[in-house]
Amino acid sequence: MATRAQFENSSDIGVFSKLTNAYCLVAIGGSENFYSTFESELADHIPVVKVSISGTRVIGRMCVGNKNGLLLPNSTTDQELLHIRNSLPDRVVVQRVEERLSALGNCIATNDYVSLVHTDLDKETEELVADVLGVEVFRQTIAGNVLVGSYGVFSNRGGLVHPHTSIEDLDELSSLLQVPLVAGTVNRGSDVIGAGLIVNDWTAFCGLDTTTTELSVVESVFKLRESQPSAIVNEMRASLIDTLA
Amino acid sequence: MKNKRKGKEIASDPSDEDDDHDASHSSDDEESESDENSTVNVDFEFFDPKPEDYHGVKLLLQNYLDDCEWDLAGFVNLILGQTRVGTIVKAGGDDPIGLITALNIRRYKELPSIQAIRDFLVKRAKNSPELSKLQALWQSDKNVGLLVSQRLMNVPLELCPPLHDAIFDEIAWATEDEPSVELRESFKFQQYLIQTRVYKEKVPKKQPVNEDGNFIFIKPEDELFFQLSSWHFTFPVQAETMLAHQTKGLQLLGLVMAVSAKQIKAFRSKLKGLVC
């Protein structure tokens, strides 16, 4: 199910929150409305944690994570790091990264199996992404743009990318990620998908400006219409061969 | 009766050839950089509100209700939906740099956005002697127009007379051109309610607080509205402005005024006098 939300009158909820299959991070300081929108959908299944990163509220763009781990920029303070580590499940590895491109959420787009990273990302960071997040890493651009985390959002079931992505790029990315992809917009025509949309395998949240058409595209490409949280959280992804058999 | 549109018809772009809107008034404007002797020509164009202007208008109205969380999206859609009365100003690009419109409070009173505005203003008027007048205005069955006017900081003064001519002319034409009697009546405003921002010098606590006067008006027409207003009140404002360093010693206040429709003619002539 996809829900609309807003953070202090801003539709850019992807800037102020981060959603994975194992946890949800939310910025401090939004009204309780924002927090309770997430809690009502998620609290029964995964922890919803209020955090800040280096004193800012733009946590969605600063960090990147999946069910295996979470990467934080080097500007994260020790107290913040400790708070996050304590609040997340033990199997989630929380790691601070020394990386010049510190807005990790803009530079890296990931699901539980594959990651796309900014073409200029350090080699060490790439290895850390592969280790901590437990993913296969690809350096890619989306519609010619290096900020893959800003212009593409994907889960284990589907992905939404910048509207100007060509068919060839869509095919290439789709074969790398092994999920169906669609080029589209959120928040009434905005092409910055990462700012307007957060998604995991059973639910998604879009900015309040998102039109009904955009919302239905999100629900269909991420296969949210009949999902049940418990089934997704616990299961392993079936390999392609199983579906052919 | 057909809509009478006077004023210069500028050479419109091919992309603007559209039956739905017309580029009506426009004013050529010269801004001179006195140091470098260079002149920048800017054409300000007036358009009817269109759905495409959504994001720009939303940005202009971001702080309309200070830091309150309310149905801003609904309010913007309301403004864009009223194409006959309302003007969006653009400076040669696609992005709105200014907006003016008048919304009949009674006509839209069921909408959550209008109710949010009412609740916000009533709450801010709690300590003011004008509270009862404000509440009476919201509950009255007279036609009260909420005049919403917002633009970027550095839009030149010369724009004000055409801008206000546009809105008051459109209101007058709407009383003749709207399809139903009810709609025509709804634009016969008897009062206008205006919410705007002003600066006031911060007084040291020992001196008595002087409510009236000594306002520094951000928009020049607000001063004229203030002089012609029936009543007004101010309230403190939380949201920060960009000019913090330039406005040291000044406090930003919200100002709400009610102006009788009979004063509009005087307002328009005074405004022209201010510019020339």
From TrEMBL, chain A:
One annotated Gene Ontology cellular component of this protein: cytosol
Major location category of this protein: cytoplasm
GO biological process: assembly of large subunit precursor of preribosome; cytosolic ribosome assembly; maturation of 5.8S rRNA; maturation of LSU-rRNA; ribosomal subunit export from nucleus
Record's subcellular location: Cytoplasm; Nucleus, Nucleolus
InterPro entries (alphabetical): eIF6
Classification via Pfam families: eIF-6 (PF01912)
Keywords: Cytoplasm, Initiation factor, Nucleus, Protein biosynthesis, Ribosome biogenesis
GO terms for MF: ribosomal large subunit binding; translation initiation factor activity
Superkingdom of origin organism: Eukaryota
CDD domains tied to this protein: IF6 (cd00527)
Function: Binds to the 60S ribosomal subunit and prevents its association with the 40S ribosomal subunit to form the 80S initiation complex in the cytoplasm. May also be involved in ribosome biogenesis.
Family according to the record: Belongs to the eIF-6 family.
Binding partners and assembly: Monomer. Associates with the 60S ribosomal subunit.
Protein name: Eukaryotic translation initiation factor 6
TrEMBL record, chain B:
GO CC aspect terms: nucleus
Source taxon at top rank: Eukaryota
Region feature (Disordered): 1-41
Similarity comment: Belongs to the BCP1 family.
Listed name of the protein: Protein BCCIP homolog
Lineage start: Eukaryota, Viridiplantae, Streptophyta, Embryophyta, Tracheophyta
